[in-house]
Amino acid sequence: MQSIDFNLFKFNLFDVLDVLLVALLIYQLYNLIRGTIAANIFIGLAMVCLLYFVVRALNMRLLTGILGNFMNVGIIAVIVVFQQEIRRFLLLVGRNASLQRNRAWWRYFLGKTDVEKDNYKRIKPIIDACKSMKQTHTGALIVFVKDYDEQIYQNSCEVMEAKISKRLIESIFQKNGPLHDGAVIISGNKIKSASCILPLTDNTDLPPQFGLRHRAGIGVTEANDATAIIVSEETGEISYAKQGRVKMNISFAELEKLLNKDY
Fold first, then answer.
1. Where are the transmembrane segments (predicted)?
2. What are the DSSP calls for the chain, one per residue?
C-alpha cells in the first residue's frame, strides 16, 4: 500500500502569512477594477489565456503559435492595458504608508475630537455650497486630490490658489460665469484651480442620464487618486465618485461622512 507523505501538508507561520498577503493583494486589485471597464478587459485576457492552453492541449499548432506570441509579451501587455489601475494601486500603497502614520500622530497629540472638529471646519463650506446648488439646480463638479500635480491640471485650468468658501464655490459655478464650465480642483485647504477640462470615463455601463459632468467626475477618479462631487444641473441630485464608481442621490449626512473619510 502506497504511503502518504504528510510533509506536504505541514504549514508554518510564514506560509500562513504568505497566503494572507496574497489574498489581501488580490482583494485590493479586485477593489480597484470592480465595476470599471478594466474588469471586462481582465476577463478578456483570462479568456485568451484559457484558449491558449486549450489549443496547445489539442495540438492546434497554428493557433498555438499565434497565441503563444501573445503570451510571450503578456506582462508588457498587462502593464500597458492596466497602466491606470497599476498607478492607482501604487498611489494607494504609498498613501497608506505615509498618511495613516501621520493621522495616528495627529490623534495622539490633538485627540480624536479635535481632529474631527478640524475636518468639519474644512468641509462645512463645501457642504453648504452643495446645499445651495442643489436647491438652485446649479451644475457643479468638485474634485478632491491628495497630491496636486501641476502638469496634469494647470495646463487646462485657471489657477486660483484660493481659500475654500461657500460663496466662492457658488460664484464659480454660476451659469453665466466664465469659470462655470469645468471642474474645481481642491487639494489640502485650498481651491487650486477652476474650469478644468477632465478626461471622460470609458465605462459604457453607466446610467443613460449621466452627462459629460458625471463622466468627467468618474473619469478623473479612475486615472488619479481623487474623489469627486457631482451636482446635476437637471435634477439637483448629488453624486459621489471614487475609484471609478459612483454613489447617486446621496444625502448631506452621507456626503459629510464620505468627505470626513476621504478628504
1. 12-30, 36-55, 62-82
2. -PPP-GGGG---HHHHHHHHHHHHHHHHHHHHHTTSHHHHHHHHHHHHHHHHHHHHHTT-HHHHHHHHHHHHTHHHHHHHHTHHHHHHHHHHHHHHHHHHHHHHHHHHHH-HHHHHHHHHHHHHHHHHHHHHHHHHT--EEEEEESS--HHHHGGGSEEEEEE--HHHHHHHT-TTSTT-SSEEEEETTEEEEEEE--PPP--S-S-TT--HHHHHHHHHHHHSSEEEEEE-TTT--EEEEETTEEE-S--HHHHHHHHHHH-
Report if residue 35 sits inside a domain: yes
Residue-level pLDDT at 130? 93
Predicted confidence (pLDDT) at residue 169 exceeds the cutoff of 80:
yes
Task: Specify the number of domains making up the chain.
Answer: 2
Domain that includes residue 188, residue range: 112-262
pLDDT level of residue 49 (50, 70, 90 thresholds): confident
